Amino acid sequence: MGWSSMSRTLGIIGVLGFLIAAFTPFVNVLARWQATPGQLEPAEAIVVLGADSAGRDGTLGTTSLRRVIHGIVLHRRGLAPLLVLSGHASPEGRSEAEARADLARVLGVSSDGILTESGARTTREEAERIKELLRPRGVRRILLVTDSPHMMRARGVFERAGFEVLPAPTDESPLLVSRAPEDRLQVLRRILQAYAARFYYRVAGYL
Amino acid sequence: MGTFLLGVIGVTSVGIYILGSRGLGLSGRGLPAAVGKMLECIGTALVFFVLNLAVTMTVIFISRGLGEGLVSLYLAGDVAWLILSLFQAVTFQWWRELSRRGGENAVNRRR
User: Fold this and answer.
1) What are phi and psi of B87, to 5 degrees?
2) Nearest CA among A24, A17, A18, A1 for reference residue A179
3) Which of B46, B62, B72 to probe the A interface (max A CBs under 10 A)?
4) Distance of alpha carbon A169 from alpha carbon A112, whole angstroms
5) Residues B34, A14, A21: CA angle, nearest 5 degrees
6) How far is it, in rounded angstroms, from Cα B58 to Cα B60?
7) Is the complex ipTM more than 0.90?
8) CB-based contact (8 Å) between A107 and chain B?
9) Distance CA B16, CA B109 (A)
10) Per the CB < 8 Å rule, is B73 touching A200?
């Protein structure tokens, strides 16, 4: 098979793949299939994983905000006495964890109930550092807050760190049911990223 | 929303076809070949995309293995890879096309 016919065949596959992903409910079905259902039960701590660094002025990104607000809501519902907020600092800005803690205090969470962790840069490092933070307090059962595609890998490393994990995925139903082509492609990209990261964690022996 | 988008693309495609065939005098028989060239270009872009991702993942794994700072895995998911790969593919396809035409012209001159 020459270059032209091979690239033409790949082109047909690429165009068909794009049309299916963007203009059919395939991605919505895939997203629902791989989503981890929430298990919202009383725990000893709510752990909100980092998403992106806070800006220089402490501004949080959309994913970070969605996660921390979900964590605050669970805390206000009395599901756990401790709210652990993770998120590292960018070189030019303050840490995401601190920006989230400020938001939690403004929304009525007492300072005594908030713990922050800003040294970890990966999910595995978050699990290790949060284990060091919570072990002296005797915490074992946690509600883990992150978005759905990230949950499977995050749950694996936290369980490996010795926690009993109750998944509390952020509600992403607007994205899961969206019929906008751009949203579908974005969801597909995140699912593929999550699978690639899980593959890396397995190869590296973290899972 | 998707149907609307496809509808607009369909209408403008028909408009471009009419403009091309009647206004610019382009041959209608050349259209399937043009679609074929477009597919070749997309296929080439996919090849470059996979190549770029493979190089990126290798660099990430090596840098992590050596402990040389942390390169995020999410870098590999940036949409810019796709667009840059398309630039590479268009350039490569035109390079092949022009080289082939150059070769054909040289043969014709010899005749």
Assistant:
1) -60, -45
2) A24
3) B46
4) 25
5) 125
6) 5
7) no
8) no
9) 36
10) yes
Q: What does the alpha-carbon distance between residue A52 and residue B74 come to, in Å, rounded to a whole number? A: 11
This prediction has a pTM of: 0.81
Dist CA A64 CA A50 (whole Å): 7
Question: B79, A179: Cβ pair inside 8 Å?
Answer: no
Q: Spell out the residues 6+ positions from residue A185 whose beta carbon is closer than 8 angstroms to its own.
A: A21, A22, A27
What is the DSSP pairing of strand A141-145 with strand A45-48?
Answer: parallel
A15: its two tokens: 């165009």
Which residues does residue A116 pair with via DSSP β-bridges, in sequence order? A85
| Residue A55 contacts residue A85 (beta carbons within 8 Å) | no
Neighbours of B74 (CB within 10 A): 12
What pLDDT shows up at residue B70?
A: 67
Mark out chain B residues that contact chain A at CB-CB < 8 A.
Answer: 1-3, 5-6, 36, 38-47, 57, 61, 70, 73-74, 76-77, 79, 96
B6 chain-A contacts, CB cut-off 8 A: 23
Please check whether residue A64 is in contact with residue A51, taking contact to mean a CB–CB distance below 8 angstroms. yes
Residue B13: phi and psi, rounded to 5, are: -65, -45
CA-based nearest distance A13→chain B, Å:
8
pLDDT band, residue A56 (cuts 50/70/90): low
* Structure-block tokens of residue A141: 């059962």
Whether B79 sits inside 8 A of A189 (CB atoms) is yes
- Helix, strand, coil share of chain B (percent; to 5): 85, 0, 15
Element (H, E) at A114: strand A114-117
What is the CA B1 to chain-centroid distance, rounded? Answer: 26
Burial B36-57 (b: 16+ CB within 10 A, else e): ebebbbbbbbbbbbeebbeebb
Residue A91: is its pLDDT beyond 90?
Answer: no
Distance, in Å, from the CA atom of A82 to the CA atom of A112, rounded to the nearest integer, reads 8
Inter-residue contact A191 to A30 (CB < 8 Å): yes
